[in-house]
Recover the amino acids of this structure.
């Protein structure tokens, strides 16, 4: 039976708008694969649609705001919350591109038999260029943060393990950090380096590092 | 004469350092952290006020500077 990837990508404010657009390369990878894709974008990234779609999904890629105990969708409606509905993600691979969920929710999900959770145990910093906010995909500074982050779902979609996806993302972030500290980087890119370093250090994998689709 | 608290002084110096680094940073830079996005000016205010985001920024900058100095980054 074909495996299914579920992506939630609201766009109700500037940070989620950036995540919404920067999911496009992941969607392109998914469409080239044999996977079935459920794309809960914009207002569709709500709890009602999430509930309808999550049961049939094997890999869930959340984009949105979060806290230690939850990840949200459009207009910050909670989608998944510790001590509430973790059982929805049993037997699934999960990547939460949101703040802090790795601190509590991720562990809670794996305890409730999710295969693996990759996310961030502190706030996920996202840096962008003021002059590019109307064209997020043209924003090279945001790309330094989001392209490595995209490698997690892209690597999993290609059939590799959660551990490989984590290593790929870490490697790409460190490569970008080296660039940002070099003479080839713009001043803005150099100024953003501490925040990428923070993301590198707070990215976590919890659960089965051999898990794959 | 009041005794100086060295820990408090280090913290104060660190906050001042981060503020100066932020003042010297590019005006083009915008940062999203937590559920909001911030201009340079707004970040400086957060650090000065030592609110939750301000403390986050100080921690991120402090770790970066320490890890650069120790060679952990290269």
């Amino acid at each position: 039976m074909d495996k299914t990837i579920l992506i939630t990508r609201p766009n109700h404010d500037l940070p989620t708008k950036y995540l919404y657009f920067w999911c496009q390369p992941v969607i392109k990878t998914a469409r080239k694969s044999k996977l079935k894709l459920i794309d809960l974008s914009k207002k569709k990234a709500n709890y009602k649609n999430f509930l309808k779609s999550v049961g049939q999904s094997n890999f869930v890629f959340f984009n949105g705001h979060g806290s230690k105990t939850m990840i949200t969708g459009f207009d910050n409606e909670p989608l998944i919350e510790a001590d509430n509905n973790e059982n929805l993600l049993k037997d699934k691979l999960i990547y939460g591109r949101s703040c802090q969920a790795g601190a509590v929710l991720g562990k809670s999900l794996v305890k409730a038999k999710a295969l693996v959770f990759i996310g961030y145990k502190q706030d996920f910093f996202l840096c962008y260029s003021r002059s590019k906010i109307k064209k997020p995909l043209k924003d090279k500074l945001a790309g330094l943060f989001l392209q490595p982050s995209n490698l997690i779902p892209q690597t999993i979609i290609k059939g590799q393990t959660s551990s490989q996806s984590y290593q790929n993302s870490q490697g790409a972030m460190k490569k970008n950090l080296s660039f940002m500290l070099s003479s080839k980087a713009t001043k803005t890119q150099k100024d953003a380096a501490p925040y990428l370093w923070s993301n590198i250090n707070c990215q976590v994998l919890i659960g089965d590092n051999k898990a794959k689709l | 004469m009041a005794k100086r608290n060295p820990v408090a002084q280090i913290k104060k110096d660190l906050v001042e350092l981060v503020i100066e680094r932020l003042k010297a940073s590019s005006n083009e830079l915008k940062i999203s952290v937590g559920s909001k996005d911030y201009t340079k000016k707004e970040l400086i205010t957060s650090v000065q006020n030592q609110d939750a985001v301000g403390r986050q920024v100080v921690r991120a900058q402090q770790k970066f500077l320490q890890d650069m100095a120790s060679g952990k980054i290269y």
Remarks:
- The first strand of chain A starts at residue 4 and ends at 9.
- The first helix of chain A runs from residue 14 to 22.
- Helices of chain A lie at 14-22, 24-32, 47-54, 105-111, 140-157, 162-180, 187-202.
- Residues 4-207 of chain A form a domain with the Rossmann fold fold (CATH 3.40.50).
